[in-house]
Amino acid sequence: MAQNTIILATRNAGKIRELAEPLAAHGLRVVGLDAFPDMPEVEETGATFEENALLKAEAAARHTGCVAVADDSGLEVDALEGRPGVFSARYADDWPALEGESRDGRNIRKLLHELEGVPAGRRSCRFVCCMAACKPDGTRLTVRGAWEGRILDAPRGDGGFGYDPVFWDGEGQCSAAELTREQKNARSHRGAALKALLAAWPAFYGQ
Fold it and tell me: Which residue of 47, 70, 87, 193 has the lowest C-beta tally within 10 Å?
């Protein structure tokens, strides 16, 4: 791998595209884990988003010998003491799925069930994204972005994914699933974390 290559510790093509363009402005080329089919999956055993992002970035840096970047994200609901948190993607895996129901749909169904009867003023929440960058020598950087909102009583909108249909964005006065991709990127937790990463990148990469 060329010296200016950064490994993005994911096989998600969308995430790779999202990071490739801004890092290209720093003269860097982004490569995903599809280029390393022998790289084993990393078990996300961390108790926080930061810990999980570091687990993935450190494993990728060790395996490839290149600087690696990883992220972990999810939803924190204040009335549920921060749940689902790091378990956001698999929150309702302990619930039986309804016929034709997606995993996202099941997660939303469980979330709304747990918030049943909770008034709008107590349904505050945030999407959180943590990004970690690691070098093969162990040097590391973590940044965090958040997007504040509240949980709706029922899904709205057909866009987005995950919990977007029940996440109310106060600035846009709509659900995250009703925002355009450009609007979402400008507001989102992942966009905020990416801005923080790019701001800290020259100092980190030049160490």
Answer: 47
